[in-house]
């Protein structure tokens, strides 16, 4: 549950307060004739709360800074933001905020003590003012599904109803908009945002990525095991190693006592014949190992090739979609420079809106076609290479089987020859050293088998752990989804309840309003609907938009799980040719709902401006400051 209240607002020019008013914790109406500065006050409130505003009127730009006392979740704070008058190049954007965790009077008296400056954007050394305010609101760590940063300005897009935004848009317009950011803001303020769920989803993505990588490794190793003559029972291999080590120990002992061996020396086959057979056996063993290693690497290359082909196919699909989209919508026009954000001069239909070079849809489409053609050629080459690897794998498996048979035969021939070998004084010791080398080679070979099996087991166990972790994360996400869906249903039902209450009370100005059965909103699309319709007369759109936005506010006041800060600022009560009675009727209905039994004991704040205040509401209980006129404007500026 989050709560925001504006207690006091001061606008300063030089050393003079040109606007200074206190606000009530319930309903606050700023009223006066048109062009008397009501919107400037609303914009100052939006600005001091952290909103990005660069379109102040000339009178407002003459002011130096804005100062306000806020109450956030019962914590009084004082905030200040300076107004840079030299906004020719939009340098007013991203202005910092001075924050003092103290009431206004104490903060003003302290001058320096307690004040801290926070920039608009986070740095390595300091958090942004949005992060500081979010801490006071007890908001969770907020980011979109694409890890985009959420700022106070984004939050205020749903809290401030301004005059300049498109009437058919749910939230305040932004030059650089993101559906995922709007979605995150909507879910946050409706209380259906879960930072824990987002964290689990990111973990699941990383776990799945690691699982896929390890699965590829285990698949390749399985293929090697399948086609080799390895023994995969570690107990048998360890037992064989133990026997060979015992033999090696005896050989080492015999080397230390060569006299006992030489006593039984006899004639034997020539050393040359023995060396030839030993050399042949080593060559075959080396070839066998090399073939198994090549098979393993080729299997891995085959798996990587399949994944690469999938990536290329996906890119070709994306290009097909881009071509269809381009044909359907034509060239998209940039309105602002992506480097300096200046508004770009309008280009003609055959020029690029950024660099003004001549272009055409046919040229752009041909670029897509060239990219697609290059990818298709690459795809064809990759598939040919993959087929070559399949053929190579088959040949390697055949070679391994043949080499295995040759190795067994050579080993038998060598063993038979060594038995026939005599024990002459010249070669007996040589045979012993040869036996020692053979035993060491066999032990190393078996150790490599153990290492390979151990690696496979580690991969297999890790894969099982990751699979189990995926299931656990999926279950946690599903539990949170269920909780979110439950809250979401309750939230949207309550919003619909208040929206219809306001819509049905509009009178007979719009027939569809009287018959309205269901309202709906989409943060991602930035749209709102009445019975799936988003187009009415201009004045009816003003009413409907206000009904929806106030409905979100009223639902947040009634339902505690909303994070919407029980605060709404509206500078659009009447517009687009709305008749006086229709505006007054809406004002009365808003205040009536605010004073209803369901909300009257709740903590909230409503601030709205109007040039057509209802007579019932034009009383000190609801109004702020004077009723402004052309001779008595809201900002008491020094004359130029």
UniProtKB/TrEMBL annotation:
Give coiled-coil spans as residue ranges: 190-301, 393-420, 456-486
Gene3D superfamilies, sorted: P-loop containing nucleotide triphosphate hydrolases (3.40.50.300)
Domain Rad50/SbcC-type AAA span(s) in chain numbering: 23-249
Protein's UniProt keywords contain Coiled coil: yes
Q: Which Pfam families match?
A: AAA_23 (PF13476)
* Alphabetical UniProt keywords: Coiled coil
User: Superkingdom, according to UniProt?
Assistant: Bacteria
Is DNA damage tagged as a keyword? no
Q: What protein name is recorded for this chain?
A: AAA family ATPase
